[in-house]
Amino acid sequence: MGEVWRPHVTVAAVIEREGRFLFVEEETEFGVRLNQPAGHWEPGESLVDAVVRETLEESRLRFAPNAVVGVYHWTRPDGALTYLRFAFSGKVTGEEPDRALDEGILRTLWLLPEEVEAAGREGRLRSPMVLACVRDWREGRRYSLDLIRYLAG
After folding, report:
1. 40 has which bridge partners?
2. Greatest alpha-carbon span in the chain
3. pLDDT tier, 4 (very low <50, low <70, confident <90, very high otherwise)
4. pLDDT, tens digit, for every residue of 58-80?
5. Contact call for residues 51 and 86 (beta carbons, < 8 A)
6. Which residues belong to any copy of the Nudix hydrolase domain (predicted)?
7. Do the domain assignments include residue 149?
8. In whole angstroms, what is the distance from residue 82 CA to residue 91 CA?
9. To bridge 130 with a disulfide, which of 14, 42, 58, 125 should be the other Cys (CB 3.0-4.6 Å)?
10. How far is CA 37 from the centre of its chain?
């Protein structure tokens, strides 16, 4: 029997403040890249819980999601991995400045939309999903958190 295909399910926080978007600069297998606070959905979590956790771990910021920006499907050009990303928008509700950043996270940045676009052109974004999330947010795409239904086992 062949290998079972399993996409990597991830979450991302699209956070805008005063015209700038929260990003993390992170070490990847392809070099230093920019990404929203994002990461893998873990067993036992809701998607909302996952994005709250990932945002705190990668940025030291407490995040309160209030909408779904979109769901994104992307396969790496080498075909090695396929991702399914759930992106959420919301507000920062606090900070834990003494908390250590996740391994591989170098720093947080607040970038203007044109800086994000330039990073995309220069190949400095983690994936095309990163820019798609910002563009969708700027176009006003917001869906109720009720879009995601959790059913008991």
Report:
1. 10
2. 53
3. confident
4. 999 999 999 999 999 999 999 99
5. yes
6. 4-149
7. no
8. 29
9. 125
10. 5
Please name the residues in contact with 122: beta carbons below 8 A apart, sequence gap of 6 or more: none
Q: CB neighbours of 121 closer than 8 A, spacing ≥ 6? A: none
Question: What are the φ/ψ torsions at residue 51 (nearest 5 degrees)?
Answer: -70, -35
Residue located via tokens 């591989």: 104
Q: Indicate whether 148 belongs to any domain.
A: no
Q: Are 67 and 144 a contacting pair, CB within 8 Å?
A: yes
Q: Which of 38, 67, 60, 70 is nearest to 51 (CA)?
A: 38
C-alpha 11/C-alpha 70 separation (Å) is: 10
pTM here? 0.95
Structural domain boundaries, residue 40: 8-143
Tally of CB atoms within 10 A around 65: 23
HSE of 18 in the Cβ direction (CA atoms, 13 Å)?
Answer: 1
Which residue in 59, 58, 61 sits closest to 93, CA to CA?
Answer: 61
Would the pLDDT of 27 be above 70?
A: yes
Q: Which two tokens stand for residue 52?
A: 């709250």
Read off the DSSP letter of residue 102: P
Q: Where are the alpha helices (DSSP H) in 60-148?
A: 113-121, 128-138
